[in-house]
Write a structure and sequence with these properties.
- With about 425 residues, the protein is an alpha+beta fold.
- Among the domains are: about 170 residues, L,D-transpeptidase catalytic domain-like, CATH 2.40.440; about 90 residues, no CATH class.
- It has 8 helices and 14 strands.
- A hairpin with a 5-residue loop joins β4 and β5.
């Protein structure tokens, strides 16, 4: 056990040693504190450019998301439904035709158009209706003006149309189709050869366009003397309706665009007022077809180009369309060679239609075997190549076949 004196000495030495160690430790702590503050301030401090290097480094590593301007929403697009293709109106039933002759009358074995096979109409039968216009509101391509040069195939006009011709054309331009057609038709008939050739061609061209709408469609124009509206009655046949009106049932079917075997009670039909007649001008190889108004005045309908007999052998004069001698797809016997052509033979020279003619005046009453027919030689139209008959292009003879009525229509052949 140490003596009290020794214990006091030992405590004094320990106290001195603690005092000698405390001063350096305080300096070391102060230095460490200053260094730590410097490091802290260095990390938190900012430069003059406003971004510390540490912050910049962080920014480079994790760039903040950029804001992009939002696109405005697209406006809704209208939903469009493509329009359906226009459906053309149904064509009139037109039989096919091909051929043509060097002629004599065909045999009697071919069918005729006098009696169709249509059934009696019933309420269930289909059909089409025809609306009558309150006025002559039809759309017609306007005729060429009087100053146009190339009119009806002519390269030049010698002069402006005659005053009466201009007046008729003016009526057409003004929508007075019935009145204009009547006036121009009278000029063609009354003036005849005295009418300027250019004026006559212009009249035919204009009236053909007018009649394509007024006559050859199912539209009925008020006060048109060439047609009327008829309502089908119980027991009617299209053939009986046609006979009562002096026309043919194929023409009624063509104009109304109907099946002749399918008519119904109450059906409204546009019915032509026949009969129609033809005039052949040999010098011009042209046939004009006319109807007539209630007073018997001729009304021009349509023109056709024709071929005629070799060596000017087509006889002039007045003829009637022989009843029962309108034939479809007729066989033919060549009177010169004896060669026979069956009905369906594509080499049959007289084609698909035959309209037999019967002499009706002193010049023609003893002549036999003449007629109007088709051809398999369309290049012969406008020439003298037949055996004396009048020949026509296939489509033209089919239309003429529908227009002319057996036993009622007349054909006049002039020089």
């Amino acid at each position: 056990m140490p003596l009290p004196s020794q214990a006091r000495e030992t405590n004094a030495r320990g106290s001195n040693r603690r005092r000698s160690l405390g001063v350096p430790m305080l300096w070391a702590a102060a230095i460490l504190l200053l260094v730590g503050c410097g490091i802290y301030l260095g990390v938190r401090g900012t430069g003059d450019d406003g971004e510390s290097t540490a912050s910049a480094a962080l920014t480079e590593q994790t760039p903040p998301p950029t804001r992009t301007a939002a696109r405005p929403p697209s406006p809704p697009q209208p939903v469009t439904t493509p329009a359906p293709d226009p459906v053309p109106p149904p064509s009139a039933p037109t039989p096919a035709a091909d051929d043509e002759p060097t002629d004599d009358a065909p045999t009697d074995d071919a069918p005729t158009e006098d009696e169709p096979t249509e059934d009696r109409p019933t309420e269930a039968d289909g059909g089409s209706t025809v609306s009558e216009e309150a006025s002559a509101a039809v759309t017609i391509a306007p005729p060429m003006s009087a100053t146009d040069d190339d009119r009806s195939g002519r390269s030049e006009r010698r002069a402006a149309p005659a005053p009466d011709v201009r007046r008729g054309l003016g009526m057409i331009d003004a929508g007075e189709f019935i009145e204009g057609r009547n006036l121009l038709s009278r000029l063609l008939v009354d003036r005849g050869e005295d009418l300027d050739a250019d004026d006559a061609a212009l009249i035919r061209e204009t009236l053909t366009r007018v009649n394509d709408d007024l006559f050859f469609t199912s539209r009925i124009t008020r006060n048109d003397p060439l047609v009327e509206r008829y309502t089908v009655q119980s027991g009617d046949l299209l053939s009986t309706i046609a006979r009562r009106h002096g026309t043919t049932y194929p023409l009624i079917a063509r104009i109304n665009r109907i099946n002749p075997n399918r008519i119904r009670v109450g059906q409204s039909l546009k019915v032509p007022r026949g009969p129609f007649h033809a005039i052949v001008a040999k010098a011009e190889f042209r046939m004009d077809v006319y109807g007539s108004d209630r007073e018997g005045e001729p009304i021009y309908l349509r023109s056709f180009d024709v071929g005629l007999g070799e060596d000017d052998s087509t006889p002039i004069g007045r003829w009637s369309v022989e009843a029962g001698r309108k034939l479809i797809n007729p066989p033919w016997h060549n009177p010169r060679t004896g060669e026979f052509f069956a009905a369906d033979n594509p080499k049959n020279p007289i084609g698909e239609r035959w309209i037999g003619l019967k002499g009706a005046d002193e010049q023609t009453h003893d002549l036999k075997g003449y007629g109007i027919h088709g051809t398999i030689e369309p290049e012969s139209i406008g020439r003298m190549q037949s055996m004396g008959c009048v020949r026509m292009r296939p489509d033209d003879i089919e239309l003429l076949y529908d227009l002319l009525t057996g036993g009622k229509s007349e054909v006049t052949i002039r020089e």
